[in-house]
Write a structure and sequence with these properties.
The protein is α+β, with helices and mostly antiparallel strands and about 300 residues long. Helices cover about 40% and strands about 25% of the residues. The strands form 3 sheets. A 5-stranded antiparallel sheet has the order 2-1-5-4-3. The radius of gyration is 29 Å and the shape is elongated.
Length: about 300
């Protein structure tokens, strides 16, 4: 009994996902109704053309074109390995659509690769959900003024650093950084300029640490830095570097230049510490810097 190809075509046509077949030359030989619905292109528009002709202009999340050297279909035709990727394609109406693509080789009776099938599904809902999750996380964990971590996240992160230190022996240190004479700045320039200087300091601090270190706003004009995998000498050097970079930052205001300096207390966490004892010791070091004339570092 010969297979009923009409039955299989009807079955694939009624899938919600888009499905298309290509031959060894990446020429599209079949295009289902799901593909028409998701792309806006009918079978008459694409069948017989090559996917490498860039009809759908597949790109990755960074907007880099995949159709030349990074095409998952071309790679599967070459090595026979199934692939899955999250990409964007160009809809006939002009906009970009996020899709999840799954590519598998098609083999003949001798096991030779004669083509490939790509199945793609609309990823818009998932992308939207991830964006909403990211927005919610920002609301919960980021300081709305400066864009750095807020006190709630800092406390959670500090506890995780202690867990890592006790479990794996990974050292870490913290710094408390307080902007000097900030009340006088607000009184002289106004609260808007004070907010702008806070944001300036936060950006300087965030850009000055490593990607795996954390800068957060502890409250008011006080920031905290949590420095991972560091020894005492290096922690002190980093604190001095942050102090100097903040001092060298400035903003133009009318015909004047607004600057701010920072006093810093820095210390390493020890096995005898708790979050509370570590913060208390760092706070005492910070106030020693304040008492020493401000714009300096006290490290223990």
């Amino acid at each position: 009994m010969k297979p009923d190809t009409t039955f299989y075509k009807e079955l694939i046509d009624n899938l919600y996902d888009g499905v298309y077949f290509v031959d060894r030359d990446r020429r599209i030989t079949y295009w289902n109704r799901g593909a028409e619905r998701l792309t806006g292109y009918g079978a008459d528009n694409v069948t017989g053309s090559r996917c490498r002709d860039n009809i759908l202009c597949h790109t990755n999340n960074d907007g880099v074109s995949l159709c030349e050297k990074l095409c998952p279909v071309a790679n599967t035709l070459e090595d026979g390995v199934c692939r899955e990727a999250e990409v964007f394609f160009h809809h006939r109406d002009g906009h970009r659509v996020p899709v999840n693509v799954r590519v598998s080789p098609i083999r003949n009776g001798d096991g030779m690769i004669v083509g490939a099938v790509e199945v793609f599904s609309d990823n818009s809902a998932r992308v939207s959900d991830l964006q909403r999750i990211d927005e919610l996380q920002q609301l919960v964990f980021l300081d709305p003024l400066t864009g750095v971590a807020n006190r709630r996240y800092i406390q959670m992160y500090l506890q995780s650093k202690f867990d890592e230190m006790f479990r794996y022996g990974w050292p870490f240190g913290i710094m408390l950084l307080d902007l000097d004479h900030f009340k006088e700045i607000n009184d002289s320039f106004g609260h808007q300029m004070g907010d702008d200087l806070l944001k300036m300091a936060a950006r300087t601090l965030r850009n000055a640490v490593r990607s795996y270190d954390l800068i957060g706003r502890w409250g008011g004009e006080e920031f905290i830095a949590i420095i991972t995998n560091v020894k005492e000498k290096r922690l002190c050097e980093m604190a001095e570097r942050l102090r100097r970079l903040v001092e060298e930052s400035s903003m133009a205001i009318d015909d004047d230049i607004a600057r701010v300096t920072v006093s810093i207390g820095a210390t390493l966490a020890t096995s005898d510490d708790t979050v509370g004892s570590l913060l208390k010791r760092t706070d005492e070091l910070l106030y020693r810097s304040k008492g020493a004339g401000r714009n300096c570092v006290t490290c223990a």
